[in-house]
Design goal:
This protein is an alpha/beta fold and 433 residues long. It has 17 helices and 9 strands.
Length: 433
């Protein structure tokens, strides 16, 4: 059975193809033009469809849980439309032979926008209907089961139908009214509730699960997942507190092959050179503004912890007053930090202060994408309180990363834990894509 994302991608590809075919008779009022398109322009059809599918994927329009926000849908579909216009226009300029005409392009993308929005609004509407609710059983009634039930509304379906199965004789932490039986009655419970998913949310599973019955249930089509795996799929981060060390050892993920490291380094070299070449002419202007704004140096350098916990100097444009930590020592930077200068606030919002880190990328201290580097003082502190914190240092730190994209600015141990969840998700799932 195809996954929902795969099915939706195939539907989009079919829709894009159909819209391109329909755009010809709509533009020229003749069915003969369709035969011309089909006979002589198969490569062009493929390019048009590939471009629009790429931007649909890029703007996360295959993430079904995002469909719950109607405004988000309309906006992202608009981004697909405008980005496709720009990309295809550039391709027309570079390769004139693939051009089908501006009128065809506008009609094609306009039709696709209407159908793309319509399909996703239909999915959104039917996912809210109770008869289409996702039926989920959670094996467990403790803390882990409670965490999993809390994130289920963020899954593909608002109206998920959730029930719990007790696996011990302990008092349940979850709502007792939602506990439908004991794990020994699993076959009868499955027959009564017909779930699509069974999530195993137990911190200790030895002797608690009837494996023979679970195998039969899985072969009948019920999707059985570990709680940590489900949490990762839904949230895009790892449930660090409940991960066993064996999860790192036995998984085929968490593995940086020589090819991936070489590719990543090549990518970093190419784009750091391009980035420095494009931004270098603005360095004198930025330097002058920094000097006029506050006394002190132009550049700020600080020891940070890199790959394998080796320290290196990171370079930025200075955004704080000179010697900002001379009296306090190493402290977390705050969201509205009073030490930040007027120009520094603007540079931090626009990320202009990060540009000199391209030199760190060129040197090989950093990568474009990876966990953000911290100071050793904070690293030693966080290693004591957060499990697996050192794991983030098995890759090069990044100018940006999954945690920066997904999580707002943070300056506490709790924020560090949340960022670690995202960093480990990135390291685990790292690939060229």
């Amino acid at each position: 059975m195809l996954r929902p994302k795969t099915s939706l991608l195939l539907i989009d590809a079919l829709l894009a193809f159909s819209c391109l075919i329909c755009s010809y008779p709509l533009r020229f009022f003749s069915l003969d033009s369709v035969d011309f398109l089909w006979r002589d322009n198969l490569l062009t059809i493929f390019i048009y469809v590939a471009v629009i599918i790429f931007f649909t994927y890029f703007f996360e329009l295959y993430e079904l849980r995002n469909f719950l926000n109607g405004k988000w849908l309309l906006l992202r579909c608009g981004f697909v439309f405008s980005s496709s216009v720009l990309a295809l226009s550039v391709l027309f300029y570079l390769f004139p032979s693939i051009q089908l005409g501006r009128g065809i392009l506008v009609i094609f993308l306009g039709l696709f926008y209407i159908y793309q929005v319509g399909i996703r609004l239909l999915i959104r509407k039917f996912s809210r209907a109770s008869k289409f609710a996702t039926r989920i059983l959670i094996a467990g009634t403790g803390d882990l089961a409670q965490k999993i039930s809390a994130i289920i509304p963020a899954d593909n379906n608002v109206h998920s139908y959730i029930r719990f199965i007790s696996c011990t004789n302990k008092e349940p932490i979850v709502n007792p009214q939602l506990v439908v039986g004991h794990i020994t009655e699993i076959k009868e419970i499955i027959q009564d509730y017909l779930p699509q998913k069974l999530i195993v949310a137990l911190t200790e599973r030895r002797g608690s699960l009837p494996l023979k019955e679970l195998m039969q249930i899985k072969l009948r089509g019920v999707d059985i997942l570990e709680a940590t795996t489900y949490y990762e799929q839904v949230t895009g981060r790892l449930l660090v507190e409940d991960i066993q060390p064996s999860s790192f050892v036995y998984t085929h993920r968490f593995r940086m092959t020589p090819f991936l490291r070489s590719y990543k380094r090549l990518y970093d070299l190419i784009f750091s050179v391009i980035g420095l070449t494009l931004t270098a002419p603005f360095f004198p202007l930025i330097a002058l503004l920094i000097k006029l704004d506050s006394p002190g140096t132009i550049f700020f350098k600080q020891l940070r912890t890199g790959e394998n916990e080796v320290e290196y100097f990171i370079y930025k444009f200075r955004t704080m007053t000179q010697d900002a930590e001379s009296t306090t020592g190493a402290v977390w930077a705050q969201k509205d930090d009073p030490r930040v200068t007027r120009l520094g606030k603007f540079m931090r919002k626009t990320r202009l202060d990060e540009i000199p880190q391209l030199y760190n990328v060129l040197k090989g201290d950093m990568s474009f994408i990876g966990p953000r580097p911290e100071r050793m003082a904070f690293v030693e502190q966080l290693k004591e309180t957060i499990p697996f914190y050192s794991t983030r240092h098995f890759v090069k730190p990044g100018v940006t990363g999954w945690a920066q994209v997904c999580y707002p600015y943070g300056a506490t141990d709790e924020d560090a834990l949340e960022k670690l969840r995202y960093d480990l998700f990135y390291i685990k799932n790292y690939s060229i894509f």
